[in-house]
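Run: sequence + phosphoric acid mono(formamide)ester -> complex structure.
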Amino acid sequence: MTRHFLNLTDAGADGIAAMLADALDRKAARAGFPKGRADADAPFAGHTLAMVFEKNSTRTRFSFDMAIRQLGGTSIVSDAGSMQLGRGESVADTARILSGYVDAIMIRTDDHAKIEEMAHYASVPVINGLTDASHPCQIMADLLTIIESGKALPGLKVAWLGDGNNVLHSLVEAASLMKFQIWAACPKGYEADPKVIAAARDRVRGTDAADFITTTESPSAAVEDADIIVTDTWISMGQTDSETKLKALTPYQVDAALMALAKPDAKFLHCLPAHRGEEVTTEVIDGPQSLIWQEAENRLHAQKSVLRWCFGQIG
Ligand code: CP
Ligand code: NVA
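>> structure
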């Protein structure tokens, strides 16, 4: 059975735990290596990863490219617009063609249905490098960063402030699987997809984590005594800038006053790219509680373990 990584639920709690443990081990094992040197075991020697981008990317593009190299393999990177995909060749045909050339496919696309179609027709693992609906690779890096900061996931209070977007969806999914509290503070009209919230609540129903998924319009309620504060851009790729949306989101800006309501050792995360002065102030994102650079580097380490999970090497 081919293992695809379209959402965190594909791996489940055990798979995620295995990937996080693997990422921590492998990161430590290559400390001091030049970045382009392969890991000692080079578990992907002879393997090739195709990467297809329908949207812009810096972190996902470079971190996956370095991830496959450090695992001993190689990559082919293409923008969808320069492929026949960009002029109408079907996702299904593209999936079947690429499956004949490469060992795994990472795709960033504007429509989650396309990645599901890709996975249906591909005979090699397909990995979600962001869709309109979710961003599971980002949340793997975020979980790794939280653990590295010395905090254990179960029971932790994680506060999201801002737009109810793809990154929040994967964070909510992670909360329901890894049993931490998620407080999603979003303005009316810009909440997370109710289906994502309902599915997460169903997952924890009847467990100790039954009341761990909270949605609110109150930024201060979300942040109060929180361990981790997370935000993201207010306007995601593919969305048009709207004055109404920006106005609704203004009270959700993460600033020093909001951070002061969280636990004194609370940490700040942002998937980047950031818009200083919009979703977060410069003081917070460049301040001592911010882990954004470690979080960005961890995309590389987390994704190596995602690739290994897809190939059944772990989990
Ligand atoms: N966080 C993230 O996915 O960044 P990119 O859009 O640069 O890949
Ligand atoms: N929510 C953002 C994440 C970018 C990494 C977007 O989809 O544009």
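>> summary
Residues 57-60, 130, 138, 271-272 surround phosphoric acid mono(formamide)ester (ligand 1) (CB under 6 Å). Residues 135 and 167 are 5 Å apart (CA to CA).
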